[in-house]
Write the structure tokens for this entry.
Amino acid sequence: MLKTRQLACFVAVAETLNFRAAAERLCMTQPPLSRQIRRLEEMLGVQLLERDRQGVRLTEAGKRFLQDARALLADVDATLQKARAEAGASARTLTVGLTTVVDSAVFPDLTSLFKAEYPDIQLNVQSRISRQLVERLRRGDLDVALIGLPSSTGALKVERLFDDPLAVALPSGHPLARKRRLSLNDLRDETLFWFERGRNPAFHDHCQRLFAALSFSPRIVLEPEDHHVLLGRIAADGGIGLIARSLTAIRRGGVVYRPLSEGGAMAIGIGVAYRPDDESALVRAFVQSVRAYYARREA
């Protein structure tokens, strides 16, 4: 029987491509994590992950199953939340959204940051792209969210916390890899992986205005939504990507990273968003906690 624990283990490894990091995220050790992945593969009859000296990679079957696994976990979570509400569960829950546009390491450990002070609070953390988090926040499916900026947030209240400048990801054998820093002018004749406007219209338009001001109009190829897939395409196809600097922590054979001179002007901001009419003491406490966390980090 398929178990949600196995799905959670697979998603953690698939998103980090690192068994140690996945085990830390799940608060477990690596051996039982490996066993859960192996049992899942045996149950499905396919190999989901490849693991060798170069690291961990998703197989084609693994890439396809990742989307299904995320959807299944989301459905289970929604069902549990509904059941708790209908049963009048006594435990209070704070549902928090985290954007996937930057590396998860830039976010605080919510358990130690928030739950240590409010041990009776059940934290429900959901990772999505910023546009989806904004939609869920407006509908009331989330209490608060850490989103990428700029985003089309409408009437939501948003407080900017920090900026994550853009960096260049390019093939390790590319002639531009010999330079220590790159500018958009250096990339003028290159093929650029770039995201479709629908993923984040506000940030897309912000970048396009800067591109136009600098007369930067490279050849555009649609960027995969998954960062690991993007890096694989860069290594295999030879294109160039612009990613959040925090994501350069992801190591991928055949790909190198260089700072972008205009990265600050095109930085991905991270802000905390919530509904302006939400008078919840928990939401106010969460906002105060993350505000203090990033203030200490910048000090």
Notes: The longest strand covers residues 92-99. The chain has nine helices and twelve strands. The two ends are 50 Å apart (CA to CA). The domain at 166-266 is CATH 3.40.190.10 (D-Maltodextrin-Binding Protein; domain 2).
